[in-house]
User: Which sequence fits this backbone?
């Protein structure tokens, strides 16, 4: 099931009415049932990072964030990471561990789909903030040169997060990208955050000092271009 502010969708997003589309819709409904049984936050995304399906564990992780007109985690995960003021309260070490890798994936998606209206809308929102735009155009290439292209990978990455459930609290998760052939044919990917028990974490995760992070122009870990 895909979730959004104020509730949840009980069915996947609709697809065009054709025999092939009906079969795809039936597959997604069964896949939603599969996600229900997964104990870790798991989500199916399209190439824009729009949320197609998300399970209850995903909702539990992000269900406490405040409202936002265009960056709710149950609507678009990329925009949540980049623009939601509450993102850093859940996604630990937000800038280098989450924001910059997502910007790297976004840049690759824009290159693959240069005419996509949804991606272009996100690009315009990035451009409206001078610091975020400088980070995207100049800081991101610098970060990739410094950290290496592997730093932008999602699958297999171990990243810190702060779960609202005290059973988990400040911990780490391994990002696992696993996509069935049927999902891939529909242009979707699946991402699961495999949570680690606190006793297994290699080092403590620092909680943010403030309950809300700064607005979008916040990328202090990447240098602005020299003037």
Assistant:
């Amino acid at each position: 099931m895909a979730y959004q502010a104020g509730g949840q969708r009980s069915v996947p997003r609709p697809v065009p009415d054709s025999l092939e589309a009906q079969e795809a819709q039936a597959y997604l409904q069964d896949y939603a049932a599969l996600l229900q049984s997964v104990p870790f936050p798991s989500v199916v995304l399209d190439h824009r990072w729009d949320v197609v399906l998300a399970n209850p564990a995903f909702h539990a992780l992000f269900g406490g964030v405040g409202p936002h007109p265009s960056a709710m985690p149950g609507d678009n995960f990329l925009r949540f990471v980049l623009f939601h003021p509450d993102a850093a309260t859940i996604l630990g070490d937000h800038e280098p561990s989450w924001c910059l890798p997502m910007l790297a994936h976004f840049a690759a998606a824009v290159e693959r789909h240069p005419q996509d209206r949804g991606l272009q809308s996100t690009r315009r929102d990035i451009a409206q903030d001078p610091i975020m735009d400088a980070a995207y155009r100049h800081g991101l290439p610098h970060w990739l040169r410094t950290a290496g292209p592997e730093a932008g990978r999602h699958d297999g990455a171990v990243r810190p997060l702060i779960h609202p459930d005290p059973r988990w609290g400040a911990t780490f998760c391994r990002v696992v990208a696993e996509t069935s052939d049927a999902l891939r044919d529909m242009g979707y990917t699946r991402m699961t955050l495999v949570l680690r028990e606190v006793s297994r974490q290699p080092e403590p995760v620092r909680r943010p000092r403030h309950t809300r992070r700064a607005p979008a122009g916040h990328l202090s870990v990447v240098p602005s271009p020299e003037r």
